[in-house]
Specification:
Layout (H helix, E strand, L loop, with lengths): L5 E5 L20 E2 L2 E2 L2 H9 L4 E6 L4 H8 L8 E6 L8 H5 L1 H4 L4 E5 L2 E5 L2 H9 L5 E7 L7 E5 L5 E6 L8 E9 L3 H5 L12 H10 L3 E6 L3 E5 L3 H18 L6 H7 L5 H10 L4 H10 L1
Parallel strand pairs: 1-4, 1-6, 4-5, 8-12
Antiparallel strand pairs: 2-3, 6-11, 7-13, 8-11, 9-10
Length: about 290
């Protein structure tokens, strides 16, 4: 019997690129317009139908995350909290979450990434339907040298993924969203640290690629991928969310709305959540969903 896919949010790290604003709080707890940053990657997992989620944090920040998010039951979810004592690369997340996954496939999202686009749930469903191998998502960027970059051959097949290349072979960066099968922790255990002393996610993906089981799905013009790792990109993300919400009158990255539409919480639960947020814009929005 196929195991249900589980979710991972990697929300560790020290956020030194955002100092001094992250010296007292985790980057993923900072606001992106009207919601905590972590709400946005959480919403991606929820849109893919995932309800069992491991949240990986630093020891210092975990209590703040738990104060914000609880055990997940308010959204019909179940959270498992995992400590990352030292940030030693993105692939380390699969070692830390090995017991939680227990052989199940996973969808991991980085805690500072925001995804938006019509058709996102369908794209995630296609990736999740693959029982073996892995899928990552390529997004066209103007500055690929900052990212892990996909190298395509003449027929559009993936040859390699190169971390921060001086001369990028394409403009497609690998986003912070990884849909991998249940062998990911075992594969991550095979990786040796890079010269940076980290277990690189590109090294893990190269194992899948060498086995012929890695798919790269490119995200087209209708999608937005925002990496909020710098002050400028955080401001850009906040303005992006504000503009769309003000224009459409719809929330982006609302776990409460998604849980309600997924049927994971009742109208009464949503009303109680709306009362909790009081007269804030977010609270009024939730109240309007159920009247």
């Amino acid at each position: 019997m196929t195991k249900q896919r589980k979710g991972i949010i990697l929300a560790g790290g020290s956020g030194t690129r955002l100092w001094p604003i992250t010296m007292g709080a985790s980057k993923q707890l900072l606001p992106v317009y009207d919601k905590p940053m972590i709400y946005y990657p959480l919403s991606v997992l929820m849109l893919s139908g995932i309800r069992e989620i491991a949240i990986i944090t630093t020891p210092e920040d975990q209590a703040q995350f738990q104060r914000l998010m609880g055990d997940g039951s308010q959204w019909g979810l179940a959270f498992t909290w995992i400590i990352q004592a030292r940030p030693e690369g993105l692939a380390q997340a699969y070692l830390l979450a090995g017991d939680f996954l227990a052989g199940a496939p996973s969808l991991m999202v980085l805690g500072d990434n925001i995804f938006f686009g019509h058709g996102l749930p369908e794209m995630l469903a296609r990736a999740s339907a693959q029982e073996t191998g892995g899928t990552v998502f390529g997004y066209r960027v103007a500055d690929p040298e900052r990212y892990g970059v996909v190298d395509f051959d003449a027929d559009g097949r993936v040859r390699s993924i190169i971390e921060k290349p001086e001369i990028p072979p394409s403009n497609y960066a690998v986003t912070g969203l990884y849909c991998l099968d249940g062998t990911a922790p075992a594969k991550a255990a095979q990786i040796t640290p890079s010269v940076r002393g980290e277990l690189e996610i590109t090294a893990l993906l190269e194992i899948y690629l060498a086995q012929g089981t890695l798919t790269v799905e490119t995200m087209g013009r209708g999608y937005a991928w925002l990496d909020t790792g710098t002050h400028d990109s955080m401001l850009d993300a906040g303005n992006f969310v504000r503009t769309l919400q003000e224009r459409q009158g719809l929330q982006i990255g609302s776990p409460d709305e998604i849980a309600f539409h997924q049927g994971w919480i009742s109208p009464d639960t949503l009303r109680a959540r709306a009362r909790l947020f009081g007269k804030s814009t977010y609270g009024r929005y939730l109240h309007a969903l159920v009247g």
